[in-house]
What we know:
alpha+beta
Amino acid sequence: MGLYEVIHGRRDVRAEFTGAPVGADVLERVLRAAHAAPSVGLSQPWDFVIVRDRETRSAFREHVREQRRRFAESLDGGRAGTFEKIKIEGILEATLGVVVTYDPGRGAPAVLGRHTIADAGLYSVCLAIQNLWLAATSEGLGVGWVSFYEEGFLAGLLGIPDGIRPVAWLCVGPVSHLETVPDLERHGWRRRRPLERAVHHGRWGERLR
């Protein structure tokens, strides 16, 4: 796949995982791509926890289901009905989980480039996640970002030290296919915003005529 095909073909996968194995060489290539991401001050503040154990994944899934239930209770009738149709995770269906963490102490106290933007390290972790996602897509793997969790629960489940944040649980594995339209669009949750509405020229709100 070409770069632009990978970017536009990437999907947040939930229901399409097959559970087939991921080769060790493929996983290493994907992780190397993630580890090659740019980072503020070359701090590389990420770590990757590979989770294969079914018991651990089952415990996490139960926690996620409870968080889903709580979110559903906060929605009004119409929105709740739409949300009910949306699958939010493939924790057990995926071959493995990759938990990406952020260590704000990596390279501290003088992290070059973080002097005025405290979140620059967190942005760096997100770049690593994007690299992982695109590399996985190019390898024919699906990735699903699970965000319905409390950080403290996941840190305790995986023995993540105090001060290190679990940023993402990524479900990773071979898929039967990738949908052409993102799930949230297909199920009517939201529609993609046109590029021209996101581009400003010179000052906020200035559009080309």
